[in-house]
């Protein structure tokens, strides 16, 4: 009887410990996360679910290029355990904000580990932040990490933009999105190991949807005739999309909506559109449509629709989530160029 009672007490103790561990996991407050813009915010919410509270600094239809941090943003960053940023010098205002907020949590650079596309000047040369000439794709890990973590401005002669040596719009590749998701998942699991299984389960579901959409878009883009695979947009934000799906993207404006399109650049684009018979141009949700409308009027091109380069729509719009955004952009392009 004594042995039986001892065993029963041991079992009871183990059960109590198990319930205690479950209760501890359930009682843990959601991880406070700050994401710099809406695409990263959506990814964090998909992966974190009920175990995170996400504050997005630049919300739906907001332009991260021209964002000015507010005192409320500084408070949110100061209280965050995790700050998710794009990197590749996309958030030029980030260093000032993090310093003002005295942020001491975990910084997640979502682009860490991707193969970035190098910017090129009009002669086809790529440059790093020291003005050194590099062929596209030639960079070491330290160089990429430096650009991912440093959100200062690059040299003024970088093709008229305010970023560094690489195109920061890497989320426009669904393959890159898997890397974004992995970086975010890893950070959440480290911050809240008791819920790591939930984060990795959400990650698996999300990645399956990303890969399925990638295959869907490949099929859509493959149906566009070879002579109609050039896309004209407001600013230069779709080079990763073009690389993945075999399209050429042209724009009069640089990679930042802060840059001004010169009269020479506009004239050159108009001449190219006429010469190549480009019949459609696309406005963007974060850019003034007047320049594209002017170009369309002068070339006879139609406005093919609105694309979402770096900000989601509101919940009632066609791009309320990252996957919705990518699907909307692809279907809009395919409808205009495939007809």
Explain what the structure shows.
The protein has helices at residues 2-27, 38-48, 71-79, 94-101, 141-149, 174-191, 196-222, 239-245, 263-276, 290-299, 322-337; strands at 31-37, 52-58, 82-85, 106-109, 126-127, 133-134, 230-235, 248-253, 280-284, 302-307. It contains eleven helices and ten strands. With 339 residues, it is an alpha/beta fold. Helices cover 46% and strands 14% of the residues. The protein starts with a helix and ends with a helix.
Layout of strands and helices, then pairs:
Layout: H1 2-27, E1 31-37, H2 38-48, E2 52-58, H3 71-79, E3 82-85, H4 94-101, E4 106-109, E5 126-127, E6 133-134, H5 141-149, H6 174-191, H7 196-222, E7 230-235, H8 239-245, E8 248-253, H9 263-276, E9 280-284, H10 290-299, E10 302-307, H11 322-337
Helix pairs in contact: 2-6, 3-4, 6-7, 7-11
Spatial gap, N to C terminus: 84 Å
Amount of beta strand: 5-15%
* Backbone structural class: alpha/beta
Looking at how many chains there are and whether they match, the oligomeric state comes to: single chain
User: Which sequence of SSEs, written as H and E, runs from N to C?
Assistant: HEHEHEHEEEHHHEHEHEHEH
- Report the principal-axis shape: globular
Spatially, the strands of the biggest sheet line up as: 2-1-3-4
Mean pLDDT: 83
User: Could you estimate the helical fraction of the residues in percent?
Assistant: 40-55%
Radius of gyration, in Å, reads 23 Å
Low-confidence stretches: 19-25, 121-163
The overall strand count is 10
* Helix count, DSSP H or I runs of 4 or more residues: 11
The major β-sheet equals: 4 strands, parallel
């Amino acid at each position: 009887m004594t042995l039986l009672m001892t065993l029963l007490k041991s079992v009871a103790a183990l059960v109590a410990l198990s319930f205690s561990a479950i209760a501890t996991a359930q009682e843990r407050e959601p991880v406070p996360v700050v994401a710099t813009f809406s695409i990263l915010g959506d990814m964090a919410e998909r992966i974190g679910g009920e175990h995170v509270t996400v504050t997005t600094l630049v919300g739906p239809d907001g332009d991260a290029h021209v964002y000015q941090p507010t005192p409320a943003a500084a408070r949110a960053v100061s209280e965050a355990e995790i700050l998710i940023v794009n990197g590749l010098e996309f958030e030029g205002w980030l260093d000032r904000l993090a310093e003002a907020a005295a942020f001491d949590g975990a910084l997640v650079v979502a682009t860490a580990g991707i193969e970035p596309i190098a910017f090129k000047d009009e002669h086809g040369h790529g440059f790093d932040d020291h003005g050194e000439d590099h062929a596209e794709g030639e960079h070491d890990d330290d160089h990429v990490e430096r650009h991912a973590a440093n959100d200062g401005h690059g040299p003024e002669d970088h093709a008229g933009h305010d970023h560094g040596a690489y195109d920061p719009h890497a989320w426009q590749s669904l393959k890159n999105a898997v890397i974004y998701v992995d970086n975010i998942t890893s950070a959440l699991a480290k911050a809240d190991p008791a819920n790591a299984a939930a984060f990795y389960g959400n990650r698996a579901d999300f990645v399956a949807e990303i890969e399925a959409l990638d295959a869907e878009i490949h099929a859509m883009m493959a149906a566009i005739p070879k002579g109609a695979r050039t896309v004209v947009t407001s600013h230069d934000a779709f080079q990763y999309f073009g690389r993945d799906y075999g399209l050429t993207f042209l724009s009069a404006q640089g990679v930042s909506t802060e840059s001004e399109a010169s009269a020479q650049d506009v004239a050159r684009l108009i001449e190219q559109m006429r010469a190549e018979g480009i019949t459609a141009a696309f406005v963007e949700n974060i850019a003034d449509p007047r320049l594209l409308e002017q170009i369309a009027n002068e070339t006879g091109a139609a406005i093919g629709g609105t694309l979402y380069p770096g900000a989601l729509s509101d919940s009632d719009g066609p791009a309320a989530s990252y996957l919705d955004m990518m699907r909307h952009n692809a279907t809009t392009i395919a409808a205009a160029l495939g007809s």
